[in-house]
Structure to design on (358 residues):
């Protein structure tokens, strides 16, 4: 029987692909949970810089820049490198090896049925002109999670399909190579001898934050995002552009539109929000007044984040980020290598033991 995890705290793994600055949708969808859970869980937060190459292989300079920028956003919102482990994907060789092993356990047509993958192909207008690595990254995401034997994965709603495939692969591996009965409850896989727990997704308090266009999910690529690093002037301009569909200031408004989604998310005074919603529904308050309240609430939320972010600007900030990432490689690799050894032993591939020179 393969021994279960020995860590006394349950483990989290989640992360981001470095495609640019993080926005409010990232905060309510996942970052908020990451910050909140740092003292309760053994947290591993992964920068998926290899995954960034699946659509931007010709832009390594941009990917390196965005990798450092994402870590700065993390530190600014409250990810604490003294309480959590930051994982740079390309520096964890066990992830790539597990990706290859897991690719044998999932049919290609199952990967291509992943609705998140299909949505990305459409959103990025890739047609059939994408690299072989693009669908493979869906299996790689499973390896990211399972390399650290994570039990909980804080994600946005759009990532649930990836987590479900990860759960399928964990079960399949444990059934095939560890003899775990197929009737086993998900929570009992390690206790029954499985290498991998069957991870659970944790969706943020707002599963899908709409962008300032009032229609699509907030996204950098769609140009409808409010970034965590936006300065007050830019923030105000964006809030003034929030689409509500209202024709006239005195028309009854929809208190569930994008404006009020933002207000409920970032204004802590619930009584104030309820009163504004009531007046708005009657046509007694216009879009402009509510947009001002939204801008003020978001600005108060972002102010300390911006201040911490500015302290990480430039080359000194880059140097600090690299120092943190390098310091965390040892722990991250120790966990991932242990997982790989357990997986290879279960697969009868334990011919030797390698040592990484970090």
């Amino acid at each position: 029987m393969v021994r279960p995890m020995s860590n006394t705290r349950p483990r989290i793994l989640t992360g981001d692909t470095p495609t640019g600055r993080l926005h409010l949708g990232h905060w309510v969808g996942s970052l908020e949970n990451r910050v909140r859970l740092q003292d309760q869980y053994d947290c591993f937060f992964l920068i998926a810089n290899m995954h960034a190459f699946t659509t931007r292989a010709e832009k390594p300079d941009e990917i390196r820049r965005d990798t450092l920028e994402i870590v700065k956003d993390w530190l600014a919102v409250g990810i604490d490198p003294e309480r959590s482990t930051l994982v740079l994907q390309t520096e964890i060789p066990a992830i790539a090896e597990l990706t290859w092993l897991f690719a044998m356990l999932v049919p290609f047509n199952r990967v291509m049925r992943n609705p998140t993958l299909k949505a990305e192909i459409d959103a990025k207008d890739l047609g059939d002109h994408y690299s072989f690595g693009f669908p493979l990254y869906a299996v790689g995401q499973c390896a990211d999670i399972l390399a650290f034997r994570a039990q909980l994965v804080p994600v946005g709603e759009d990532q649930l399909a990836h987590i479900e495939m990860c759960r399928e692969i964990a079960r399949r591996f444990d059934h095939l190579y560890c003899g775990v009965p197929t009737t086993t409850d998900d929570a009992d896989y390690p206790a029954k001898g499985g290498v991998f727990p069957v991870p659970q997704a944790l969706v943020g308090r707002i599963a899908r934050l709409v962008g300032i266009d009032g229609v699509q999910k907030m996204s950098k690529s769609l140009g409808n995002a409010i970034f965590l690093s936006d300065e007050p002037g830019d923030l105000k301009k964006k809030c003034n552009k929030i689409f509500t569909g209202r024709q006239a200031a005195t028309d009854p408004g929809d208190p569930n539109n994008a404006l009020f989604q933002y207000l409920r998310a970032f204004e802590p005074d619930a009584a104030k929000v309820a009163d504004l919603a009531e007046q708005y529904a009657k046509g007694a308050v216009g879009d402009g007044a509510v947009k001002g309240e939204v801008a003020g609430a978001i600005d108060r939320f972002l102010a300390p984040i911006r201040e911490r972010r500015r302290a990480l600007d430039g080359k000194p900030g880059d140097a600090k980020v690299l120092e943190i990432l390098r310091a965390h490689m040892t722990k991250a690799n120790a966990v991932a290598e242990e997982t790989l050894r357990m997986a290879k032993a279960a697969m009868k591939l334990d011919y030797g033991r390698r040592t990484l020179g970090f």
In short: The first helix runs from residue 24 to 36.
